[in-house]
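Re: Re: ligand-bound prediction request (bumping)

Still looking for help on this. To restate: I need the protein modeled with S-adenosylmethionine bound, output as structure tokens. Inputs repeated here so nobody has to scroll up.
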Amino acid sequence: MTEPSYLAAVRDSYDTVAEDYVKIAPARFAEDALGRGMLVAFAELVQANGRRPVADLGCGPGHVTAHLNSLGVPAFGVDLSPKMVDIARRTYPGLRFDVGSMTALDLPDGHLGGIVAWWSIFHTPPEALPMVFAEFHRTLAPGGLLFVGFHVGDEHLRPERSYGHPVSYDAYLLLPDDIEEQLHQAGMVVTARLREEPSQRLKRPQASLMARKPEH
Ligand SMILES: C[S@@+](CC[C@H](N)C(=O)[O-])C[C@H]1O[C@@H](n2cnc3c(N)ncnc32)[C@H](O)[C@@H]1O
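Reply:
Sorry for the wait, this slipped through. Here it is.
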């Protein structure tokens, strides 16, 4: 299958920012008490379903993958950016990290007990999101859980710089109702939602949704 054209810009941009991104992102994650709280709930729910692998899609430097493993979840990371994957492998040599895209995962149907997509779907143009959600549905086992986090809004952003470097990706703010409807269209059922309002720590509201692929 031909790669969607926006992926090259996302890959190149994250390759460029990777070494500086890793200096900031794990500390931000450590401050995100609500997000980590939802991940604890995700970890508990996914483990109640058995020991299938869990994919952290758009894992970046791997700190969320590592956190999931520390909670007892057999998680591995996948990222579009080879530089991010190099950093993740260097930082967490005991864990598995693959270069790949959530638009076309190199995984069999029904392979995963869970998927985490934590701040990683927001570079996907709206018209490509159904393809991503179809891929989540294909790779999740029946009963498998999805956890997705994103910035809330309806703007399309074109930042020129990020983490001190020039970037060429687009970024899309997303509305939880739209994402819930699209997950429903893809065959999943949203089971929980969290919206965190702006604060000193947060420039924009952020949302996370948990969804399940039905057993039947
Ligand atoms: C903002 S970073 C988030 C990284 C990490 N999840 C975190 O919480 O710090 C977005 C990551 O998603 C990755 N990404 C974006 N689109 C992707 C795709 N289609 N497939 C795989 N990774 C993707 C980028 O390469 C980047 O590493």
